[in-house]
Every structure is written in C-alpha cells, then in structure tokens.
Specification:
Largest sheet: none
CATH class: Mainly Alpha
Helix content: over 70%
Low-confidence stretches: none
Number of strands: 0
Radius of gyration: 20 Å
Bound molecules: fe (ii) ion
Structural class: mainly alpha
Shape: globular
Oligomer: single chain
Number of helices: 13
Strand content: under 5%
C-alpha cells in the first residue's frame, strides 16, 4: 500500500468528544440557526452510507489503497453525524430515532436520477466513471469543509466550536483525497474529462440539496455564508474545481445559485400576480 494511505490510516479516528464540556454546551445552548445547521449537517453526514453503496459498485473501490480510504472515510463521516446529533440532544433538541429513513424519503429528483443512472453509467463507462464520482466527492467535501470552518467561527457554543474544528480537520483530508485522485484519473482520460464535466453540469447540486428543499439549502447557505462571504465561497469553490483537468472555467456553484434565484423571483412574481387578481 502506498505511503499516502498509510499516513491517512495512521491519523484516521472517530472524532474525539470525550473531553468536551457537555454541561457547558447545554448551558450555552444553540440558536435556532445553529439547531437548523446542525440538523442539516447531521442528516447529510448520516447519508454517507448511501454514497458508499454507489462507490462500492466501481472497480477502483477494490484497489487496496482506495478500499482503505473508503472504509476510514465512511467511519469518520458516520461519527460526524452521530456526534452532531449527540450535541443537539445535549442541548435539548434530539433528532427522531428513525431520522435516517425520514431523510431518505425526502430524496429529490436529482438524487433519484443519481440512484437510478449512477450504477448504469458506471457500468457503461466502467473505466471513466470513477473520475466522475471522485470529482463530485471533491466539491462536496470542499463545501462541507467550508461550512464547518464558518460554523466554528460564528458559534458561541464552546463544545460546538471544538467539534467543528475537529470535524473540519478530517473534512480537509477527505477533500484532499478526493481532489487529488480525481485529478489523477481525469488527467489520464479525455473521455473521463468530458463525462465528468457533462454530468457535473447536468446533475450536481450543493451538498444536502438531494434530500433538502431549495428553501432549506438557501437558508443553510445564507446562515453560514451571508452576503459577501457567500459570493466569496461561490467564487472559491468554482475556481478550485476549475483547476481540475477538463473542468477549466466550470461554474457549478454560480449556476446553481443563479438558477435558484431566478426560480425564487419567478415564484414571487406569480404570487404577486395571483394576489393582484384576487384583489
Ligand atoms: Fe463529514
Ligand atoms: Fe467528509
């Protein structure tokens, strides 16, 4: 096994929480926005097992170094969701027992498309599809990382601050792994580069948008990245993804938020027209 993954395995662990002051966390409590963000994050972290299922259908999953990464990655992600749910419960906002199932039921169109066509495309484009999936993984890990960094910055809850810092450290490693492996595979194949670009542009949505409503996605981003921070996030993420072979100049975040804004304006306009007609 290569030394990169040996190093990764050496530091991989369940996110540490034994030393957190849970009484202090309870005393300080969570704001409504923090409760919303933690529930959102916990929900998407807990969905990792579904993505794992998709990844396991690909031939690269059985390369020893990749198998080692995926095993440690899904283990770490599970505990992100688990410890966020523990913090929510400690602060008086426990999640439902059957939360995982409930969230899965809210899967939206692009999530269904991914579930149906993902395995099919991964068989047809057996050699190229891993590059596609790793590119999707890279952008999701990057936005998740930025989310934890910002939450850590603005929360007043000391336990949440430490937890975000520790989770972000692991997310940084996840991102590095996905990004570096996507770059390697994309640089090897023109077909993979074309496929990755087309599928990202066709079916990519921000992390969580596959199971959350557009309003919930908007609320998450406006809490974590208000005003200029949001514009900077969009720019930074698009620029970083644009450094991957074949993805030069890609505008995934920009296009998603512009489209969402147009749809919101259209809905608002329709509501105003309807109200005017009633009057
Ligand atoms: Fe995570
Ligand atoms: Fe992650």
């Amino acid at each position: 096994m290569n030394s990169d993954i040996e190093r990764y395995i050496a530091v991989s662990a369940k996110v540490e929480t034994k030393d957190l002051d849970w009484d202090e966390a309870r005393r300080v409590g969570l704001t409504d926005d923090e409760q919303f963000v933690l529930t959102y994050f916990s929900d998407i972290e807990s969905q990792t097992i579904r993505y794992m299922r998709m990844l396991l259908q690909m031939k690269i999953a059985f390369k020893p170094a990749v198998a080692a990464f995926l095993t440690t990655w899904s283990y770490e992600e599970f505990f992100h969701g688990y410890e966020l749910a523990n913090l929510l419960a400690a602060c008086g906002h426990p999640l439902e027992e059957d939360r995982l199932e409930r969230v899965k039921k809210k899967a939206r169109l692009n999530e269904w498309l991914e579930e149906i066509f993902g395995p099919l495309l991964s068989r047809i484009f057996y050699h190229q599809f891993p590059a596609v999936y790793l590119s999707f993984g890279a952008i999701q890990e990057l936005t998740t990382l930025k989310g934890y960094e910002h939450l850590r910055h603005f929360t007043r809850n000391p336990a949440l601050k430490v937890l975000c810092e520790r989770i972000a450290k692991q997310e940084r490693r996840h991102f590095a792994w996905y990004f570096n492996h996507a770059r390697e595979l994309l640089s090897e194949s023109l077909c993979a580069r074309i496929l990755a670009r087309r599928l990202l542009e066709f079916n990519w949505v921000p992390v969580g948008a596959g199971v959350k409503s557009p309003d919930e996605v908007k609320r998450l981003f406006s809490i974590l990245f208000p005003a200029e921070l949001g514009r900077r996030l969009v720019r930074e993420v698009d620029e970083k993804m644009g450094t991957l072979p074949g993805l030069e100049g890609i505008k995934l975040m920009t296009n998603y938020f512009e489209k969402a804004k147009r749809q919101r304006e259209k809905t608002e306009q329709t509501e105003i027209t309807e109200q005017t007609e009633i009057l």
